[in-house]
Amino acid sequence: MSDRAAIRAEAAQLRALFESEGAQPVETPILQPAEVLLDLYGEDIRARAYVTSDALRGEQMLRPDFTVPVVQMHMEHGAEPACYTYSGEVFRRQEDDPARASEYMQVGFEVFERTAPEAADARVFGIIFNALKPLGLRAATGDIGILMAAVDALCTSEGRKRALRRHIWRPRRFRALMDRYAGRAPVPESRAALLAQSDPMAEAGPVIGMRGEDEIMSRINALREDAATAPISENEVALIDAILGVRETSDNALEHLRDIAVDLPAIQPAVERLARRLEALEARGIDVSNLDFEASYGRTNMEYYDGFVFGFYAENRPDLPPIATGGRYDALTRQLGRGREIPAVGGVVRPGLVVELGGLS
Questions:
Q1: Which of 104, 256, 285, 294 has the CA that lies 20 to 30 A from 64?
Q2: What residues does each domain of the chain span?
Q3: 160 known member of a binding site
Q4: Does the annotation list 181 as a binding residue?
């Protein structure tokens, strides 16, 4: 059997497993409207997607993943609750790592469930955990929602909070912003010189590019407002750092985060969601005392995850990307739902990597 045939056979086996767990099989087009993905992720998506143009349909992208089109499909036509599975190729540019495949298969399992989100988290994780058990993988988990709650609680301007939320998935940029907002990093000389001018547009010359003078002045005024904002306190920075530093087994992580919540009560609801999720995982037979939790985990993945996140790794093959990943993406349903929303969680498995590790049967 060729590698491609073996991968498709493994994908069919995984999809059949997800169907046996109640998932409805769905298909999505390989070509996706670029406008939707650009609206969600901005121009950054171009660095990791293949973009083409169509005279009738406009700019299109080869499908970078399945979650966005599946959410769109559900929000337009789906009943509640719902569970879906799919399989097919996705396409990602790998210019930073040419050794990685730019086209590969994914098999997914997505749950839209309003009444018991933590149980849905445990359901998705547990099914994938058990499916991949023959491979002896390491499972890693995290929760983006705890860090989001901490950012929302900062005593600073809404503009700064928006910037920090936007860059949660870019750890270096997030750290640079925290240092600047805390007064640890100096204001760039060019920005300080610009803000010192009483009329920055007086000697600016003709306006060139897409932005008009009103937009430029609006940005300058936003920079002035930011410059006048008091620094984030060292205590708040320390609490953010404490959250990002949590990396231990899930049961110990829960206790550590509860301790942090004493000083930062705003994260308490997110921490209690973690507690309910661990209870639901235990009910599915998963030993949470042996399940890794890292509060910063998942921050370099696609930006729609806003709660529980997980991944499965082959520890004896550090050269391989995650064999499976997933998480909660409630905000994505809100963005694509045109006024509707529903809690949702899902995960994807890469059958090509499963085959490379010897297969499930």
A1: 294
A2: 1-135+338-361, 158-233
A3: no
A4: no
DSSP single-letter state for residue 23: P
Long-range contacts, stretch 193-200, CB < 8 angstroms, 24+ apart? 194/220, 194/223, 195/220, 195/223, 195/224, 195/227
Residues in contact with 248: Cβ distance below 8 Å, sequence separation at least 6, in sequence order: 256, 292, 293
Helix (H, G, I), strand (E, B) or coil at 100: coil
Distance from C-alpha of 17 to C-alpha of 19, rounded to nearest angstrom: 5
Is 328 flagged in the annotation as binding?
A: no
- Tokens (6 digits) for 64: 């970078």
pTM score above 0.85: yes
Quick check: 144 and 132 in contact, CB under 8 A? no
Flag whether 92 is marked binding: yes
Alpha carbons 321 and 343: distance in angstroms, whole number:
27
321-357 burial, b if ≥16 CB within 10 A, otherwise e? bbbbbbbbbbbbbebbeeeebbbbbbbbbbbbbbbbb
d(CA 168, CA 185): 19
Amino acid at site 74 = H
The response to whether 96 counts as a known ligand-binding position is no
Asked whether residue 207 carries a pLDDT value surpassing 60, the answer given is: no
What's domain 1-135+338-361's superfamily in CATH?
Bira Bifunctional Protein; Domain 2 (3.30.930.10)
- The answer to the question of whether 313 is labelled as a binding residue is no
> Does 184 appear as a known binding residue?
no
Comparing 191 with 251, which gets the higher pLDDT?
Answer: 251
